[in-house]
Design brief:
This is MATH domain-containing protein. By secondary structure, the protein is α+β, with helices and mostly antiparallel strands. 47% of the residues lie in helices and 16% in strands. It is built from five helices and twelve strands. The N and C termini lie far apart (153 Å).
């Protein structure tokens, strides 16, 4: 019962005691008040009990939620534990094996520490030695640089020496040529050319220091044509390192104005056999009067014309070569002026000595048609001795007793285009 209702009930009771007449009126009123209060108390109790039941329901619901959440967490934890149990076993076994390995390696670890302690002085010594080696390497590098500079200077010095040597050699060759020019030249249309130091000249040709050499000039007469020969010991560009090339060169002379042009006289080359067997190599050709090589020279020399493949190199370079003896070879160049009419000779004949008369008589005894034709062939001629009788006797003609060996060179269709070639050097 509430505190507020207690005074009302008490007041009603006091009124009953004071006025008995009004008992019948007051008692029902009290009864109604009590019933109203009971109903109010019941409603309040029901409300309170409803609140308590709802609170209990919420508590039970919360407990159920918490219980379900805990069960799910427990389930997940159990699953994790089930999954992790083999892993934990493996990790445990691995930890055990690592522990065993560690126990086995521990003595080695201790030994390694001891070895490191012992190696520390060695490491220090190695460091010192490495520093010394670095210094030595730097010194060696410096010495190498100095040596390289010295080598460069030496190379420059040697190059200068070689250049000076080449210049001196060229000057020496020029001096030799000048000396040969000052000597009395041949004036009968023939030249016997002595070529010494053949091996050295071949080396110069191999090194391309001097590809060709020139013979001393010779003349057809004292006031005739001026001529010379040009020799490529290793061949010109058409026969490089396969054949020796030999060419005829017309030079500008003092009497060219009174000569007959173009030059049309037969030219014969002869490479002497020095073995005593007299098997010389002879080649001849007739000039092409349309070529510039045989016109009146406008420069010091005309273009050379002759044989690019005069003789194979192997016949010259062999150790037992018949054509090179004591590092010397001989080449004869002959120009046939015998067919020239005497009235066309541009010079006055000079008195001839006995030797010249005998030579011309012997030349006259050889028929003109016996001269070798202008074809590509090599001839090995065995000379016969020509004896000149005592004064007053005629010269013995031994032409019929001569033995001529003629060997025709094999030539293919490619190299049969022409017999005479002009040098392009």
């Amino acid at each position: 019962m509430d505190k507020a209702s207690s005074p009302t009930i008490t007041n009603d009771l006091e009124n009953v005691d004071q006025s008995p007449e009004s008992e019948q009126i007051v008692i029902p009123t009290i009864r109604q008040n009590l019933l109203a209060r009971r109903n109010a108390i019941r409603q309040r109790r029901e409300a309170v009990s409803g609140d308590l039941s709802e609170q209990n329901h919420l508590q039970k619901k919360d407990q159920h939620i918490v219980t379900n959440s805990d069960e799910e967490k427990c389930t997940e934890t159990q699953l994790i534990l089930k999954r992790g149990k083999p892993t934990l076993n493996e990790e445990r076994q691995r930890a055990v094996s690592l522990s065993n390995v560690q126990e086995k390696l521990y003595p080695n670890y201790q030994l390694s520490n001891r070895s490191l302690d012992e190696l520390m002085p060695v490491h220090q010594n190695v460091t010192v030695l490495d520093a010394k080696l670095q210094q030595a390497f730097q010194m060696i590098q410096s010495v190498n640089n100095k040596i390289k500079v010295s080598n460069d200077k030496a190379d420059e010095f040697l190059f200068g020496i070689n250049l000076n040597q080449l210049i001196l050699q060229q000057q020496l060759d020029n001096i030799k040529e000048s000396i040969s020019l000052t000597q009395t030249p041949s004036s009968d249309g023939t030249l016997t050319w002595k070529i010494d130091e053949v091996s050295g000249k071949i080396v110069n040709a191999q090194l391309e220091h001097q590809l060709s050499i020139y013979s001393p000039p010779f003349y057809s007469s004292l006031s005739g044509y001026k001529m010379r020969a040009r020799l490529f010991l290793l061949g010109d560009e058409n026969a490089r390192r396969t054949h020796m090339s030999l060419f005829f060169v017309l030079m500008r002379g003092e009497y060219d104005a009174i000569q007959k042009w173009p030059f049309d006289h037969n030219i014969t080359f002869c490479l002497y056999d020095l073995s005593g067997q007299h098997q010389h190599i002879i080649n001849s050709f007739r000039p092409d009067t349309k070529s510039d090589s045989f016109q009146c020279p406008r420069l010091e020399m005309n273009t050379a014309s002759g044989f690019s493949k005069f003789v194979p190199l192997e016949m010259i370079q062999r150790d037992d070569s018949r054509f090179v003896k004591n590092d010397t070879m001989f080449i004869k160049v002959s120009v046939d002026f015998c067919a020239m009419h005497p009235n066309l000779l541009p010079h006055i004949p000079q008195p001839m000595n006995k030797k010249e008369v005998d030579r011309q008589d012997l030349a006259a005894a050889i028929p003109i048609d016996s001269y070798p034709p202008p074809c590509k062939r090599a001839r090995y001629v065995q000379d016969t001795e020509r004896h000149v009788s005592e004064p007053g006797e005629r010269i013995e003609r031994a032409i019929d007793q001569s033995i001529v060996y003629s060997i025709r060179l094999e030539s293919s269709a490619e190299n049969a285009e022409g017999d005479v070639e002009e040098s392009t050097f």
